[in-house]
Amino acid sequence: MRAIGLDLPDKWGNTHAHDLPDRESLIHRTRALDRVLLWGHYIIPQWHISNYRVAYWDKFATPKIRPKYSLGLNSWWINPRLEASLDDRKRGLR
């Protein structure tokens, strides 16, 4: 069997969740696979960037000092002046 680019022994059989008879079997199979992966010291790489990509209409204001480790969406507020002019600015995009 081949999983995550690894050749695992045939004894692993089919690991598709819909082929397992019950939740207990799924948990047992998942934990066993986890032990094999941990024993092999495999690393699953992730891709990270140092900035945020967010699309939003320009109607928000933000604090002058922003959070260091997050985007801080919960600190944004709607600027009434920007919100009032938003429809006109959208029409200008056409």
UniProtKB/TrEMBL annotation:
What SUPFAM superfamilies does the entry give?
Periplasmic binding protein-like II
| Gene3D superfamilies per record | Dipeptide-binding Protein, Domain 3, Periplasmic binding protein-like II
Q: What is this protein called?
A: Solute-binding protein family 5 domain-containing protein
